[in-house]
Amino acid sequence: MSKKKVKTADQISFLPKYDDKEVEDDLDALVAEMNEAGEFDEDMEFDDEELADDAQIEAELDGLEDEIEEETPHRRKKEQKTDSKAEKPKSQPKAEPAKVEKKPQQKVEEKPQQKAEEKPAPKAESESKSHHHKSHTKHKSGDQPESKPKPEQKSQAPTKQPEAKPNPSAPPPKSSTDKTQPPTPKQQPKQQQPKQSPPKQQPAVKANKEESPIKPKATLKPLPIEVDYIPEKESNETYSQIFQIFTDTFYSMIHSRHNQETYMKQIESLLPMVAAGPSAEITSVDLVKPKLQAPAHRDYDKFIKDSICVAYDPSSVKRIIDQIEGQIEKLKADAKTLLSYQEKKYAVHVMSQVKLLKDSINAIKREPYYVPDIFHYGLPDVNNDIPPGVIRIDVISGQGFPEGDITVKVLLPIKEEGFVQFQTNPTKGPNPKFKYSKTSPQIELKNPRVIVRLQKEPAGVAVFFGKNTTEAAGFSSIPVGMLLRHHTLNCQALTFEELPGATLHVDAYVHRAISVSEMKPIDYPITMAPSVLFKKRPKKAPAVSSAPPVPAKAAQPVRPANNEGELTEKERAQLREQITLRKQQPVPKIYVFTDEEMSMFWSGDLLKFHIGACSTVIAMSAEKKEHPQQGVEDMRKKLQTKMSDLENAITSGKIGIEQYIKMIEKAIQREEGRLASLSPDDVPAHKGNIDLMKNELKVLNDEE
């Protein structure tokens, strides 16, 4: 299993930079919030009797009931037989379930933590689920997953015109951070979150004299943010020029005290064309060359992932602000997770983005423009030397034991019945150095009853002297429930009531916490205001000079902007030609899902592709003042609902990554079996759907 390197906070960057003190203040406030809620311990010691209440256990088991029902009796017997003979020491005390106090549920992915009433011990902090995650992350980005919507189909198209077919050969885009999901959460969190992936490009139709099919592009996690239009995969020369002028005009308007009225008028005239994307009609317009150039995002082919959109009315402004507030909560949850791992540099990086999003909320209220973007960050990949799906026990050393041979047995309650046993070789006392390390599969941890048992029962640690390994000379216990949320359980000083003065050092490790996604770098989708994105970085203070100050020159009159940089006659002719070509382009016909197909499961990338195809057809029909293809508008609404439901299920952890992979595999088998019953005209579209799901499945398996 190849190890993936996690970028340090210094290697991860984004445009806006905030004053360190400003971000530190926000981080201190977050730490205070964690301390007040009893979530944070600087020493990162775990509470030996930390138990979750019934509500938390039910939440962690959500989505696992289906999987246990799928287990065959043959498989269960085989697994139980493997370790059914684990021996239990006679002196082992019965673990009584601790009384648990229910706490009110916290906001956004923060799980309430329970503390045992009896023995005080180190605290364990709840780990946020990120994407993604899909991450994601797959932040994702996007977990994420982390994270993915699924398409559906409708009744057949009424007229025979070229169908937009998915292109299975389209290569998946490369993730800039290599990971995902939590997340965030990807990513979450990740959260992280599940493996989350790079900016997603949505398909659209190229400007051509002849109709060209809409080609899908297999994409990674995290789930995309909904935008008001579907941009084209490639822009044309005229649209790129319009986009560049619009971006520079916007930047000049923000940072120039002069000609702001002129710039505002130019923004208002260009915004409809920019927001509509390259597929829409470009009307003739007189333009003024902006005084300043935007520091970034002025090249449409590079900026396509961050297309500027507009919120048209108060309800859409509120929808975007609600979306940003939800992203802030998820990032704050990841920052808490990072603090719990003493990764302050990462936490500062995440809180910087939280600050940017808070500024965006205020900006969007004044300027209703927003940009879907991807925030890249990482959560530590803890214990990445341990394969997924196993638990490792290390028996390291002891002190204060009698002389002679000492044997240690550790019994883990990770089976529905009985224990999995770890036994060291005899080692000489009084201060034995065991250096014992062994792994065991997390045998039945998909069984909800086993997870409940692991949550409530401790692991037993027995000490034997000499060759007698049947009667324990001393016995202790380790609550292992925190392995559901944490990667490492460190017990440096286990004591034995029967052996005063003797201590034992035992550690338990997992690569990923049992109840949450693996921690990975995250591509997390966020929404921000362009004026915040283009915020000028603070200038460094000028070096102190001994030279006398130079008197300031008198202010020069500013030339009227409307005489600068007007388009030449040749450029106007090219613009008119492009407009004519777009008007001649026919609206493509796409496959419309039947009601039966609409009720089926479809993968996230396939859902996204068909939603994009529907949006393109609707936009082109509106441009030509035609009625859109019958059934397309209704299909888009239903697909968007299915994608939203899928995104919520993945983000909440109701559908885990392994379960999602199995669902895609079943959908592929279902569609391959349906091909023989389809009409010849529908077969190519369905084969494209199969290839698109196979591409997504390959990406998910590669990430695993």
Automatic annotation (TrEMBL):
GO terms for biological process: mRNA 3'-end processing. One of its GO terms (cellular component) is mRNA cleavage and polyadenylation specificity factor complex. It comes from the Eukaryota. InterPro entries: Pfs2-like. Residues 38-219, 540-568 are annotated as: Disordered. Residues 80-90, 96-129, 140-153 have a biased composition (Basic and acidic residues). This is Uncharacterized protein. Residues 541-561 have a biased composition (Low complexity). Residues 38-70 have a biased composition (Acidic residues). Residues 130-139 have a biased composition (Basic residues).
